[in-house]
């Protein structure tokens, strides 16, 4: 059963927006996986709200492309639609995050370096506990921190918009057999290159990391869509 956090009764945020935020977060972190059916009744009952804000939240998620409503069947979490979608998104990520890693190696602050190394320690702990959800959250934070450390406001703005849309790919990537350990090793190497102030090496490692992630997502997509 889906275990959503409770609604904040003291929030000034409209109920529909609170429901939207909670369900959206569940989708982006993989708590609600692609293909999962969601219903107004189940969400409203769990959050102890009426069906009206729940219905409005689902429509907002549909407009964002995170949910698809199929007539006479219901609402479902959208998945990865095609190999082209995967390739298109990673094509952009490779260029932008490679640049971010290079700039981070030049501009990262001492405080940001401490946080970066903390992220690698946290993902090591999640790996030991086979905590996929935790690994996805930390992986996202790791990439966001590198983006922030680039000290390029425009690059950060573009990547911030992209990060939320690609979180669903992380579940497909990190869920692959052996990929968590590989990703951890790649994170450690990348963090070291940034610590050592080596822009070219950091860029190369970031690109290699993303290419490996893309290959994992493609493999998962092919396996899921293999003719039966």
Can you walk me through this structure?
α1 (15-28) crosses α3 (51-64) and α8 (179-195) runs antiparallel to α9. The chain is 71% helix and 4% strand. It has 228 residues and is mainly α. The model has no long low-confidence stretch (mean pLDDT 86). It is globular. Strands 1-3-2 form a three-stranded antiparallel sheet. The protein has two domains: 15-77, Arc Repressor Mutant, subunit A, CATH 1.10.10.10; 83-224, Up-down Bundle (Four Helix Bundle (Hemerythrin (Met), subunit A)). A hairpin with a 3-residue loop joins β2 (67-70) and β3.
What's the short version?
With 228 residues, the chain is mainly α. It contains 9 helices and 3 strands. It folds into 2 domains: 15-77, Arc Repressor Mutant, subunit A; 83-224, GntR ligand-binding domain-like (Four Helix Bundle (Hemerythrin (Met), subunit A), Up-down Bundle).
Main CATH class of the largest domain: Mainly Alpha
**Broad shape:** globular
> Biggest sheet: strands side by side, in what order?
1-3-2
State the fourth-level CATH superfamily of the largest domain: GntR ligand-binding domain-like
CATH architecture of the largest domain: Up-down Bundle
Q: What class would the helix/strand composition place it in?
A: mainly alpha
Helix content bin? over 70%
User: Beta-strand percentage?
Assistant: under 5%
Order of H and E elements: HEHHEEHHHHHH
The overall number of domains is 2
Number of helices: 9
- The number of strands is 3
CATH topology of the largest domain: Four Helix Bundle (Hemerythrin (Met), subunit A)
Largest sheet: 3 strands, antiparallel
Radius of gyration: 19 Å
Low-confidence parts lasting 5 or more residues at pLDDT below 50?
Answer: none
* Straight-line distance between termini: 28 Å
Average predicted local confidence, pLDDT:
86
